Amino acid sequence: MDFYNRLSADLEQLREAGCYRTLRALPAELVNLSGNDYLGLLNDTAFREAFYETLSGETRNLSAASSRLLTGNVPVAIELEETIAAAYGAEAALVFGSGYHANTGILPALVGPKSLVLSDKLNHASMIDGIRASGATFYRFRHNDLAHARTFLERYAQAYDEVFVMTESVFSMDGDCTDLDALVKLKADFPNVILYLDEAHGVGVFGETGLGLAHAKGVHQSIDILIGTFGKALCSTGAFAVCSKVIRDTLINKMRPFIFTTALPPINLAWSLYVFNALPKMQARRAHLHSMGERLAATIRARGVDCVSESQIVPYVIGSNEDAIAEAERFQKAGFYVLPIRPPTVPRGTARLRFSLSADLSEETFNRLLDVFHII
Ligand code: PMP
After folding, report:
1. CATH number of 55-280: 3.20.20.190, 3.20.20.150, 3.30.499.10, 3.40.640.10?
2. 62-74 tens-digit pLDDT
């Protein structure tokens, strides 16, 4: 079989398995329940226009036209990192092109010859890619089961120089949350544990000041590497790590997706900074978001379907790929853009709809969404 025939045959197999992906445009008339604009900033034109008013000189630039290490280290990049580090009461922060860059690049830069990695079974693909690229020995613990992670530590911690324990604060598929008190307890009990926490879906959404779940619980100082992304609640693009100065310096020297890529555009960094500084004022948006999350999960549970969500991400597990596709179409006909999530993104046999809520949903629109469940 020649190359192009093989590709076509592979795609055909995906189609037959109901796993074929296509790029779609969001139909203008549908309410978007599949994005990550959790705080509802995307269409807040007044907020955006107020930001444009602040721009002058360098921050109007649409490209850095250089990597950070050459001429891309613009003042707004430094101001953003210093602002983030100060907000978390940390030694340092470092900004990256995306969460994907961060998660694929950080671990390979930090592992040594005797590092072990323990990773939650449902960690995001970007973390898995980073673990693989690091070449370190790794074990996956059962999803959200830190007791299981502990059994690995009891068995192996002594044999390694350090053990990276990697997890997410708010899981991207099910919206369930890690028990962060139990997580930091691992570090208290095993001194060579390095905690790596991805707060992609927590930053902006949790906490009085919107700094995420670890900050809300007051355990952020125990996290060695805390990842936040700008492309979700903060409605921008890029990502950051909150860490010690020695970790930051190591990443600047060794992290390939930091070194060998163009720095983010100054205008984008300025927008991320603008939104980050505004997070403490967005408490009403967060309260509305969480209230909707709780009500949606309760509606799903009332249908006898288990729903582990504790956040703005609410799964509605259906089972087969075909049924999930049909249900998604039903919600779309009712005016809501909800997409089926299928294997390999989620485990086989657990295809689902994933509702990703946004604070700009009105009560009226949200109640219409709940009504769709009631007419099934
Ligand atoms: N981590 C998690 C948990 C995510 O869900 C995502 C994006 N879906 C990323 C990292 C990647 O972030 P980015 O989109 O900024 O590349």
Report:
1. 3.40.640.10
2. 999 999 999 999 9
Q: Which tokens go with 353?
A: 């709809």
How far apart are alpha carbons 95 and 99 in whole angstroms? 10
The structural domains of the chain, with segments of one domain joined by +, span 16-39+282-373, 55-280
Distances (CA, A) of 255 to 21, 237, 242, 369: 31, 19, 15, 44
Domains 16-39+282-373 and 55-280 share a fold: no
User: What sections of the chain are H helices per DSSP?
Assistant: 3-16, 45-54, 75-88, 99-110, 125-134, 146-156, 180-189, 213-216, 245-254, 256-259, 266-278, 283-302, 321-333, 363-374
Among 38, 95, 103, 126, the mutation site with the greatest number of ligand 1 atoms within 8 A of its Cβ is 126
The residue among 272, 181, 202 whose CA lies nearest residue 38 is 202
Separation of 56 CA from ligand 1 center, angstroms? Answer: 30
Residue percentage of the chain with pLDDT more than 90: 93
Which one, of 67, 82, 85, 62, lies nearest residue 257 by Cα? Answer: 67
Residue pair 137/117 in contact (Cβ under 8 Å)? The answer is: yes
Q: What is the pLDDT of residue 261?
A: 98
pLDDT at 293: 98
Tell which atom from ligand 1 comes closest to the C-alpha of 101: 16
Q: What is the CATH number of domain 16-39+282-373?
A: 3.90.1150.10
pTM for the whole thing?
A: 0.96
pLDDT digits (tens, 9 = 90+) for 332-363: 999 999 999 988 888 889 999 999 999 999 99
**Spatial separation of the C-alpha atoms in residues 186 and 188, rounded to whole Å:** 5
Cα(189)–Cα(209) distance, integer angstroms: 30
pLDDT exceeds cutoff 90 at 376 = no
Structure tokens at 127: 């973390």
Backbone angles phi, psi at 305, to 5 degrees: -100, 130
Mutate to test the pocket of ligand 1, among 34, 101, 122, 124 (most ligand atoms within 8 A of CB): 124
Q: Identify the residue whose C-alpha is closest to ligand 1 atom 12.
A: 99
Instruction: Write out pLDDT tens, residues 223-237.
Output: 999 999 999 999 999
